[in-house]
Write a structure and sequence with these properties.
heterodimer, A: alpha+beta, Histidine-containing Protein, Chain: A, 4-stranded antiparallel sheet, 3 helices, B: Glucose Oxidase, domain 1, TIM Barrel, 8-stranded parallel beta barrel
Amino acid sequence: MIEREVTIRNRAGLHTRPAASIVKLAAKFQSEFFIEKDSFQINGKSIIGVMTLAAEQGSKLLVRFDGPDEEEAYRAMAELFDSGFGEPI
Amino acid sequence: MSKTAKQEIKLKGIPASPGIAIGPAYLFRKHEPTIQIRAIEVGEVGKEISRLQNAIARSKKELTKVFDFAEQKLGADQSKIFEAQLLLLEDAVLFEVVYKRLKEELKNVEFLIQDEMEKYHRLMTASNDQYARERADDLLDVENRILRNLEEQKLISKIDGSHIVVTRNLAAADALIFSRNEVMAYVTEIGGATSHMALLARALKIPAVVGVHQISLLAHADDLVIVDGYDGAIVLHPSPEVLKRYEKKKEDYRTFEETLAPLRELPAETLDGHCIKLAANVELEEELEFIKLQGADGIGLYRTESLLLGEEVFPTEEEQYEVYHRIAEAVYPKDVIIRTFDIGGDKFMAQTVKENNPFLGWRGVRVMLDKPQIFLDQLRAILRASKKKNIAVMLPMVTNLKEVQLTKQLIAQAKDDLRARRIAFDDKIKLGVMIEVPAAAIIADHLGREVNFLSIGTNDLIQYLLAVDRGNDIVSELFQEFHPAVIRFLRRIIERGKQKNSWVGMCGQMAGDPLATILLVGLGLDEFSVVPNAVPEIKKIIRSIHYTEAIRVAERVLMMQSEDEIKTYLKNLMKRKFPDIPIE
């Protein structure tokens, strides 16, 4: 199990497009994936769940991976977050 | 409790589509506010999964269409909503949970979907973030869409062509669903005879009666019902004598209609050689074969709104071209007059404004001129289909000359577009306008010089003229086709509208009323466009009179001062000359 902190870097925050990117990426991996914000936990493979997070720029989230490919999954997700989901920072 | 025979109940409504139907009632109630929880058998699990998957697939298809349209025509802002909704529809986790619960709890999918989505909905509405709250609305929309698709499929499977649909009200989109399943007849509690549903019923030759108060309370599922679409009578649980009487009436009408068959190939010409164009009003492609059988002289009104029924987006230029092309081919060498979209502003998703008085508001050509991109799509599609030169364009709800001139500019632009794409079209395509607004009627001479033809839309014209909503049960009797003001108005429109290069026709319901035929011929109407049903009957009347005689009839009617006087005179005339035509 891997648990790490990530930051929302893009200006617009976690709106539809980034939410979709996260979910699409998570679907590629077998590992279970959860995101936690202020002790509120959602399943990271559910778009509804991710949309509910509604995190703005600067928020810190906890991402948790559990499964055979958890290392890979985390690395890929960290990169996605780091790049600000490919949006203006 | 012994089983007693149900009491026969006779009811009266407004006849909306002719024909007699005798059969079991199917009570249609739309939008059940509460989702029922239904326990299901283990063996039904597979079926429930399929139902849900189908509903999801249909919802996806609908949303993709809406999204594409929004993106192209309405801009990124509007389309974002649908993009989010599409994603919601693809939430694997949500549906995984639903399927799991289905197998464990053995309940119907409607309940499970609503239950699961409600959880998320609550979470989202409670969020501090505006974005999350907005997505809550999207989630609700998606939920409703899935539930609607589940319901529609259930509905379609229930109707198997042997029921009479009884309902409080029937929206056009519902009627279309039913029409694809061969319903025997429609009966509604509210609604007027010119409602869209009534038009559809007539087009599909399905008997219909509207405005039957209380029927949804009095009728029960599978009750035997008699529907008389000729005079608006309904009988619930008919006695054997009444049943026999109606079966005979049904047979009599059928025989009468058969006598009209030989008229098919003959022209609508009076005994003294005055020729009249007798065309048909068409809504659905299904009617095309039928018009040929009826011997119509082409299509005097093709209502393009039928392409929008049950759709959330406007069809593309290509999609429209396919339809217009098929219709033009089917009637060739006869003509088809295509009327541009005649819709209310409420069809536009972008509009959040609710008009207080839509009938006097943003509709008809006004809307199209405000949405030139959409108008151009339609104009280009029509032009493309006009290669064989048998298409004309007609504008609805024209009020002034400027609307015609602006349209002509757009047509010119559409032509330029097509030339640049090297697509052939009829450069001399004819343009006409509907005369429905009283102002247009009064400047019929100006309009007649600007266009190739005028077509009188009596349905709306009379409503505007007499200030009566035909769909309003309380005053619908005041809607009088034979009001002296209406007759004078028609006379004026016809006289002034006929210019060197323009003719005057009528596509409103009055054109198909046998009681009005002789009068309209005498007033000088050049063209009648009627429901396909009515073509043989109207043709028979035209072929049995002298034009000179019709002129005299018109002159007499123009001197009468009351609707009663006029109707009595015409009824007596018809009874004398055409005793076998049933006149109510």
